[in-house]
Amino acid sequence: MEPKKRIRVLIAKPDLDGHDRGAKIVALALRDAGMEVTYTGLHQSIDQIVSAAIQESVDIIGLSIMTGAHLPISRKLISRLKEEKMEDIKVVVGGVIPKKDVEALKAIGVAAVFPGGTPFSEISGAIQALVNGG
Amino acid sequence: MGVARYIRDEKDAVKEVIYQSGIRVKPSYGPRDLEEAEFDYQKDLGDPGEFPFTRSLHPGGYRSRAWTTRQYTGFGTPEETNQRFKWMISHGQTGLNVAFDLPTQMGLDSDDPRAEGEVGRVGMAVDSLKDFELAFKDIPFDRIGSGLTINANATVMLAMYQAVAEKFGYSKAVISATPQNDILKEMIGRGAWIFPVEPAVRLVGDCIEYAVRELPRCNPVSVCGYHIRESGATPAQEIACALEIARAYIENVAARGLSPEDFVGRFSFNLNVYGNLWEQVAKFRAARKLWATMLKEEYGVKNKKNLFLRGLFGGGGSGLTKEQPENNIIRGAYYALAAALGGAQTTALCSFDEAYTIPTPRAALLSLRTLEILMEEVGLRDTVDPLAGSYFIETITKQMEEKIREEMRRIQEMGGMVRAVATGAIQREVTRQAYEFEKGLQNKEIIKVGVNKYTEGDHPEVELHEYDEGWAKKQIDSLKTLRRERDNRRVKEALKSLEQRARLGKNVMPDLVACCKAYATVGEMTGVFRDVFGIWEEPSIF
C-alpha cells in the first residue's frame, strides 16, 4: 500500500475580526488528526490568503468567520482561486453560520460548512473525505 | 455554571470535581480545611474596607452603594447610538460603555476599502469629532461616566472625548472616561491590535501619563482579564495575566518619572464572570487581595485607596450558547449573582441573543433588569461579602490565590508579559487551554445544557438585531462632507505636529486633542502612527 500523503490545511482569518479562538483550536485538532496545518494569523486580505495557500501548497483552505460576512468573503475567495487556476484547493467555512446560509454557501462552491460546536472528528473526517475522495 | 470537570461513576454519582484553575473540590469542608490552608482572618481577609480587601473595598459594600450598571452599547451611526444611550439611561443605567465598530477600533475611516461591510456593524462608527458631537449630544458629562471600548487607538478616542466635552462647555477636570486602553490583552485575545508590541505599550503609557497629569477624573486603563478568559484562559490565568499586564503598564509609566503611588489608583480592571459560581467568587476575592499586596509590597504604595482593585466584573459572552438561546437569560442571572457575591463594583451582562449578534433593545433591557432585580429584590445589598467565613469559600480562595501566583511566576519566567506576548508564549498557553476545554465539552466531561446534554425540544428562533446597510452609506456621505468643509490646512498642520512628537517619543495626547478639535479623522490620526510605528507581525504559535 502506498503511504498516504499528509493533508495540508490553511486556516485563515479574513478581514478585521479578531476572534480567533475557534480558528486556533480547529488548527490544533486537525494537527492532532495528522494533518499539516498552517494558520495565517489575523486581519488577512483575500489576496494574502490565496498567496499563503499557494506557497504552502495546501489541499484545503478553512475560513473562520464570525462577523456575518461569510457569504461575500467566501464568494470573493472562490473567485480569486479560479482566477489563479487553483480550483483544486477546496474551501471549507467555520464560525457563526446560521443554518439558512449553509445551502447558500454550498451553492457558491464551499465544499463543507462547520458551524461553531461541530465535533472535531466530524471536521477532520469531512476534510479527509474531501481530499481522499471519500 | 457547568464548566468544571465532573468525573462520574457508573451510577452517575459525582466522584470528582475539578475546577478549571486546577482546584480539586472535596465533598465537604470543615474547620480542619481552614487550619490546613493556614487561614488567618486578619492576614487573609481583613474587615471589609481594610487591607487586603479580600472582602470588599468599602466597609459598607453594596449598602453604601449598589453597583454601577454599564451595558455595552453602540451600533450603526452616532445618531442611533445616541438614542440607545439615552434610552438606557432613562431605564436606570448609571454609566455608559461605548462599543465601536471594527474599522474604528482598527483606526480605519468608514470609506476605507478594508472597512467595507463592517461600518456600524459591531459598534458605533466614528470618523471624527463630528460623530462624537452627535453620539454624546445631551449626555451630562459631569454626571455620567463612559467606558470606551477601544485599545490600539485608545489615545485617539480619549483625546476625542476630551475634545467633545470641551466643545459642549465641560471642563476637562470634570469628565470621567475609562478608555479600555489594554493592548496586551488584544494581542493575547481579542485581536484588535495595530502596532508592534513596544510602541503599542508606549501609547498605553502616553494615555495613562496624560490622564494622570491632566484629567483628574479619568481612569485611563482598564486591564482586561475578561477577553483572555474568553479566549480560553482558566480563571487563575485570567487574573495572573491581568496582574502581569498591569505590571507592564506600571513599569512603562514609572519610567517616565511618575511614582506608582501617583497613578495606580487610576487603574481599573475588567474581569469575566463566566464559569463555576464558587470558582468565580474565590477568584474575585483572591484578585483583590493579590493586587493590593503586589502594589504594597513591590511598589511601595501606601495610600489605601490606591490599593483598590476597582473593576467591572461582567457576564461573559463565551458562556452563552446559540442552542436553546432563552437558556442564556437564566445563565445571565447566575453570572450576575456570581459578580455580586464576588463584590463587583461595576457590572454588565452579555444579553441572551449575543451568541448571535449585538443585542436588541428588548434583550439589553432584560440584562439591565436582571442586575436591578438582584440589587433591589433578592437581597444582595443586605450585608457585605455574605460568603465570608464559609469553610469551602475560604479554603478555595486561598487555593485560588496560590494558583494565580503560580501562573504569575510562569509569566515572569517567560520574561514578563511584554516578552511573553511578543514571542507568542502566552498566546500558545491560552490556546492550549481553549483546546482542552473544547475537548472536555466534546467528550462530555464538561456539560453545557442544551449543547451536549438535554438537547431535546425545540429551538425557538430569537428576534435579532438587524444590520442596516444604509448606515454605512450615511456615515460615508457625512465623512465626505466633513473632508470638504473642514479647514484642511489646520488639519494638515495638526497631523504634522503629531507625527513629529510621535517620532520624538513625546507624549502624543496634547497633539491628538488638537487634531480632534481640527476635525482630523480617526484614519488620519491612526495613519500617522502606522507610518511612524509600523504594523505588528504576529508570532507563529503553532
Describe the 3D structure.
The complex is a heterodimer of chains A (134) and B (542). Chain A has 134 residues and is an alpha/beta fold. Chain A has a single domain (8-132), classed as 3-Layer(aba) Sandwich (Rossmann fold), CATH 3.40.50. In chain A, 43% of the residues lie in helices and 19% in strands. Chain A has a five-stranded parallel β-sheet, with helices on both faces. In chain A, β1 (8-12), α1 and β2 (36-39) form a beta-alpha-beta unit. In chain A, α2 (46-55) packs across α3 (70-83). The mean pLDDT of chain A is 94. Chain B is an alpha/beta fold. Chain B has a domain at 5-66 and 180-318 and 325-342 and 385-442: Methylmalonyl-CoA mutase (TIM Barrel, Alpha-Beta Barrel), CATH 3.20.20.240. In chain B, α10 runs parallel beside α12, α10 packs across α15 (391-413) and α19 (488-504) packs parallel to α21. The model of chain B has no long low-confidence stretch (mean pLDDT 95). The chains are: A alpha/beta (134), B alpha/beta (542). The interface between A and B is medium-sized, with 31 and 39 residues.
In a few lines, what is going on in this structure?
Chain A is an alpha/beta fold and 134 residues long.
